[in-house]
Amino acid sequence: MIDFDTLKYENGLIIAIVQDQTSKEVLMCAYMNREALEKTVETGIAHFWSRSRQKLWKKKVKRRGICKKIKEIRIDCDMDSVLLLVEQIGGACHMGYRSCFYRNLEGDVVGEKVFELKMFTEFNYIASITFAKS
């Protein structure tokens, strides 16, 4: 295993790109500190560092089934970012979309909405999931 001390953190953080293992869709981009990376490896569930709240977070809503189950972690050639290949359950985006990259440059919605928000504040949301039919 790669020694986490050899990774190139910037201000203690490293970029984490999250990608669906099967579809290869890019789901989100976030930051991890060493603790988030260690917890991700330890639990198999993606953990991140919130720059605004200055604390660890994971996208897992127990009763709703939203989470990112880690299948593989890759390190880029410069050792300054990580790629998390995941089994995504539910939506990745807090706005209700499968991917955080749900808009194109023109602002058109091109992504799949997988749940509706009932309440949203800057730091908290309650989701009512309406999973798309397969």
Largest sheet: 4 strands, mixed
Would you tell me the overall average pLDDT? 84
Order of helices and strands: EEHEEEEEE
Termini separation comes to 37 Å
Give helix % range.
under 10%
Shape call? globular
Question: From the alpha-carbon coordinates, what is the Rg to the nearest angstrom?
Answer: 15 Å
- Going by helix content, strand content and strand pairing, the class is mainly beta
Report low-confidence residues grouped into runs of 5 or more.
120-134
Strand content: 35-45%
Physical arrangement of strands within the biggest beta sheet: 2-1-6-5
| Total count of helical runs of at least 4 residues | 1
User: Total number of β-strand segments?
Assistant: 8
Strand and helix layout:
Layout: E1 14-20, E2 26-32, H1 34-43, E3 47-50, E4 55-58, E5 67-75, E6 81-89, E7 115-120, E8 125-129
Parallel strand pairs: 1-6
Antiparallel strand pairs: 1-2, 3-4, 5-6, 7-8
Model description:
- It is a single chain.
- The protein has 134 residues and is mostly beta strands.
- Helices cover 7% and strands 38% of the residues.
- The chain has one helix at 34-43; strands at residues 14-20, 26-32, 47-50, 55-58, 67-75, 81-89, 115-120, 125-129.
- Residues 120-134 have low confidence and may be disordered.
Which descriptors apply to this entry?
134 residues; mainly beta; four-stranded mixed beta sheet; 38% strand; disordered C terminus
Short structural summary:
With 134 residues, the chain is mainly beta. It has one helix and eight strands, in the order E-E-H-E-E-E-E-E-E. The strands form three sheets. A four-stranded mixed sheet has the order 2-1-6-5, with helices on one face. A two-stranded antiparallel sheet has the order 3-4.
